[in-house]
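User: quick one - fold this with zinc ion bound?
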Amino acid sequence: MDNDILFLEPVFKTVIWGGTRLRDDFGYDIPSETTGECWAVSAHPHGDCVVAEGRFKGRTLSDLWKNVPELFGTDNTGDFPLLIKIIDAKQDLSIQVHPDDEYAAKNENGAFGKTECWYVLDADEGATIVIGHNAATKEEMISMIDEKRWNDFIRVIPVKKGDFFQIEPGTLHAIKGGTLILETQQNSDITYRVYDYDRLSNGQPRELHLEKSKDVIVCPFEQKDPVPAEPAKAAYIGGGTMKRLVSCRYYSVYEVDVKIKGWLGGEYPFLIGSVVEGEGSIAGHPVKKGTHFIVPNDFGTFEINGDMKLIVSHI
Ligand code: ZN
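Assistant: Sure. Structure tokens for the protein plus zinc ion:
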């Protein structure tokens, strides 16, 4: 019993752009009719998940990371490295960009930058998303921002269920209304807001961070293949399929479609999982859409049963 899987209680965030799909689609007990974020696996001080059951019941992920490091195969230095969220965008989010580690360390009191990725759980008919921009050079980017030529500048593309986007630091991005996504990201909060559709919040426009944005936006925008040549560290065999969505220096993310029965394992220090469709069991423990868990270090290959889709990740 030394290697229990950690099942986590999500933390919810009320935001102006949120909706009710975290209740309607996932069955969560949400705090408001504008709940936009479910922090599903988080040790961040703004939303530290608590273990739901078992011998660590009631303890936070940050506490376990620091005080029971053997669960994660780490030496308990630094912070828990990742943050997994489900985002329900009923309305458009502001258009933003994140710095890389180097820029954040220099300009944000030693903070980390942010690399993130989005798996689209669902999208309304005709929904779109902002990924990248259309400026060819840094000079053109700066003049498009200064002249507020947003329609020319911002790259808006159609989005549908099952799409995946890796968002490197320096990439302009925004989720638009009618989109439900699962986000895997570096555990950082440093965001520069570029454009907020000239909306008012409590009668005031929200603060923009144009100078820092101009520093960090990469020109021209380039879409790279997020899956490198090196072999994956996790593998699934049995009924269904596993597809690697990305591997980068911070994380690898996979989509696993389980049909009846299979086995998942690999060379990762620990594994994060989210059930995003269906139901079944993980190592004999019942799970369903909306269950989030961490498979601890040295747990080994484990059996999965059921008819469900998981998004799993590791560092
Ligand atoms: Zn972001």
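One thing worth noting: Residues 96, 98, 116, 173, 191 surround zinc ion (CB under 6 Å).
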